[in-house]
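ok so i was messing around last nite and threw this chain in just to see what happens. nothing serious, just curious
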Amino acid sequence: MLLEGQVHNKPRGGPLQVQEGREGRATALGVIPGGSGNGFAMSLGIPWDLDQAVGLVKEGRVREIDTGVICGRYFFSTAGCGFDAHLSRKYNEGGLSKKLRGLVPYFPIAMVEFFRYRVEPVVIRTGLATIKAAPFLLTAANTERYGGGAIIAPGAVPDDGLLDVCIISDAGVLNAPSIAARLFSGKIDRFKGFERVRTDTVEISGRDSTVLHADGEPFEWTGDVSISVLPKSLGVLVPA
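result:
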């Protein structure tokens, strides 16, 4: 079993048994919610209690879920290249987050970085549409959640073979409280600047920024961003 924070940001060919074909699967991933946000565990209903989480080895069932791939890296909840990626990098760099892990440092860092962050125009190509936007948030979601209870893609299903590409524009100072409230209440899809496309492939071009994130783990990438999905490629222990 792995702590949630150890599950994510694995390169393709890494130690997790992600199957890029349906044959030969013999293992399942057990997750103990021990990360800073635990969004993956929350989305799959995995209990936070240690004994209950470990107990899934005997009492749980295996659910086959999709795996997202962003520029060669696996993700299981969300990946992106907007403010969420910027915030992930600042969180990892920050002195406060090095002293105090968990969600608490995110809030003061987010408030400061909100005023520093500058959106940039991009072109988003999916199998269904071409979208030109200057998004504040640009997230490909396999599950509903970021960490800490924030819901970026209400209704996202982790085993439907699709990613929910969520775009939030018009995130000015006056809209910031509404965006935050709707993220944590599960109603972000009612925000007027929210747009969503469900697709199995995404190509993003035109970026100047070099930071991306896979499940909240930032990494550097130059050039166009390619995101895809491997349907039902990972078995995870979940409550029966």
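not much to say yet. Confidence is low (pLDDT under 50) at residues 9-15.
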